[in-house]
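Practice problem: predict the structure.
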Amino acid sequence: MLNIALIMKKINFHVISIFPSSLDSYLQTSILKRALERKIIKVNILNPRDFTADKHQKVDDSPYGGGPGMVLMIGPILKAVQSIKSKIKKNKGVKNRTILFSTRGKKFTGKDSLRLAKYDNLILICGRYEGVDERVAEHIADEEISIGDYILSGGELPAMVIIDSISRQIPGVLGKQDSLEEHKGSYPVFTKPETFPISKTKKLSVPKILLSGNHKQIQEWRSKYNNQV
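Answer:
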């Protein structure tokens, strides 16, 4: 089991995306919505189109060397990052980190969630199309992250995964820290009814051990399934 440290501070997430509205629905639902309303976390979404001088708000162009698709340009992204950093308080001890989502990035794990939860400001750059100009990864981002061995249409879903995973580490977001699987582990759970008929001849039942009231035996049963993050 990971050693969980209580994080008693608000985290500011700054998301750079050319489709900012794509994050709205999830942020206005359930746990994250309550965390935002209670100001435990803050999510600031910026559109790189607002940081280009082009009259058509162009943020992408064809790749050098040829190839299909379009590539997000470094200019608008750099200006968006600079705008965020210019508004971040320069107080001593404030920790900031800039992340680019990339298929070539380091695989995101529970340990990364805990590590990144220690920052005050996380700038999340969402790629699209054929990707982002490599100079963003080399000179603007502090690290590249991938959430799995598969391809997505953009970085917005990874951004939400990061925000959700990190936010739930903050006391007050879930209500009870014991709700964290990092604390209690992962095991099968059941609720009413005790038996559920799926056909005329077959019923699905809750394991008897969970109905026994013997907490020690229940804990031992659950420990067989525990897969710690």
